[in-house]
Design a protein that fits this description.
Helices cover about 95% and strands about 0% of the residues. The chain is mostly helical. Helix 2 (about 30-100) runs antiparallel to helix 3 (about 105-155).
């Protein structure tokens, strides 16, 4: 090693030893320990409060998802039921038309089928709209109450 480098290492070592020696006799103010303990206690308390809020919010998010999922399931089931009913009606009409003996009878059966389907489509559309509105309302109510609860929790943390 070079002499210059060795001197730098020795100077650094001497300065570090002087600093540690000076620090060994230094004392903290008496209120520092109480201040530090108080800060740690407040930090721990805030941590526990925010953890509880986070857990509650996770439960609320789950409730929102379950509400949304149940609503989507209801709508899906309604669409499937309508599709099955419409398909069954189409097969019944097709079977009746296949058994018809004259063109006027075929025309009458086909006209009856379309009249019935237009009426059924109106009813099905209305029911589906009402169900969708109900599901949307339930979902929005769940989200609204969850949001209100969350804001209240954050407000009360302080």
């Amino acid at each position: 090693m070079s002499d210059a480098f060795t001197r730098q290492v020795q100077d650094f070592t001497r300065q570090a030893q002087e600093m540690f020696t000076a620090g060994k006799d230094a004392k903290l103010p008496e209120n520092f320990s109480a201040f530090a303990e108080d800060a740690v206690a407040k930090s721990r308390d805030a941590y526990h409060k925010f953890t509880a809020i986070a857990k509650d919010n996770a439960k609320v998010a789950e409730e929102v998802m379950l509400t949304t999922q149940a609503g989507a399931k209801s709508i899906g089931e309604k669409i499937i039921a309508n599709t099955l009913a419409n398909t069954e009606a189409a097969f019944e009409a097709a079977q009746a038309i296949a058994r018809a003996r004259t063109l006027p009878e075929i025309a009458r059966l086909q006209a009856n089928y379309w009249q019935q389907q237009f009426a059924v489509a109106g009813t099905q559309s209305k029911e589906l709209f009402e169900l969708s509105s109900k599901v949307a309302k339930q979902t929005l109510e769940t989200v609204g109450s969850a949001t209100t609860k969350s804001f209240e929790q954050f407000k009360n943390v302080g």
